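--- STAGE predict ---
source: upstream dedup step, 1 unique chain passed
mode: sequence only
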Amino acid sequence: MSSPADADALRPAAVGRPRIVPHLDAVTALSVLIVLLCAVPSSLRVEALGGAGAPSGLWGLACVVLWAVNRVHTARASARASYVRIATLVLLTAVLAAWTAAMLRPLPPLEGNAADLGVLRILSFCGIVLLTTDLATPPGRLVTLQRRLVLAGALVALLGLAQFVTGEALVDRVTFPGLVSSQDFSGVGDRGGFTRSAATAMSALEYTFTLAVVFPLALTFACFDRDRSLLRRVTPPVLIGAALLTSVSRSGLIGLAVGCTVLLLTWPGAVRRLMLALAPLALLAVYVLVPGMSGTLRYLFTASDSDPSAISRTGSYQVAAEFLAADPVVGRGFGTFLPVYRILDNQYLLLSIEVGAVGLLAFVGLLAAAAVSAHPRRGPDRPGPADLHRQLGHGLVASVATAALLTAFFDLFAFPMAVGTLALVCGMCGARRREHG
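--- STAGE serialize ---
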């Protein structure tokens, strides 16, 4: 008769939560990343590491190692082809090709260092996407990670609202031992007589990008997470929505509009009617509670022809065309088009210069692969038209669509919080595809 130990030895190994190290799984590791992205000001760096010393970026590099370890231990479980994984590896290959081309030509020392730093930044980004994509967790863990991202976004929004009311940065009162700031100014600014909040982000653009990308998930939980109390469901989207409406930012308002539009097309009729009825009330609340804000927001769009930031963006196309003509295929090297040359405020233009048509198409392909992977298959994942898991798929599609548009408004990869949030969302899209088929 065989012993219990023999029976355990013959029992197939469980394909559940991938253990990276004892008592630590991928969701826990990515939750640490969320804390680093949102709680630590994104301008802070480990001084000895310079531009490569952002805490979230270093954790992203650790994610590459963790993903490789998980791949070795769960090779069979994750053997299914993943659009997001393939697109991520293609993007990484394109960046390495651009780096190789840059190393084969004479480079100024600053560009050479920037090229090496660029590879580390893109490796960190890809590590986060890959680790999140290849989650092989029990049902519910992916939702847990999404809830944690929404909670972090709500706390960032709350800090931003506090800055808006007080007119102070607030984060400069907290010291982070071992870290130094990479910029000698506060991310909090002023526009139209109102405080332009940044919370823990480097700038208002990074702040609004992050909130706009998280907002569709927050709103989805508010509408369909029926297992939680109304207060817990509604608070995050209210905070994030209020922060975006008072951000004094065109990109924040555009991102809010895009996310809501995509969701409106996917919601059941009753939910759609409720949200359409509440939207004017939200705008009315801003009009009443923040006198002058509606006029300022209207001015941002009607006076864009004379706005310096808008003029700079439109004037960058000719510059990008000239550089693209010089290196049209693989570009001049990721990160080598330094801000001292020109700030393009458009990541797509910057990618066309630095990694050429191949790298630009690879990045766009990653966004497309994420949207396709997140989109629910025909028929609900579970019975019922308002199933949370199915609607979270639509929420991820809305987040990716928002990110894709707002990426044209600033240099995404220069901002740790924004690029880390995008990496998480793309990885969640891939993980959803694995979990729901």
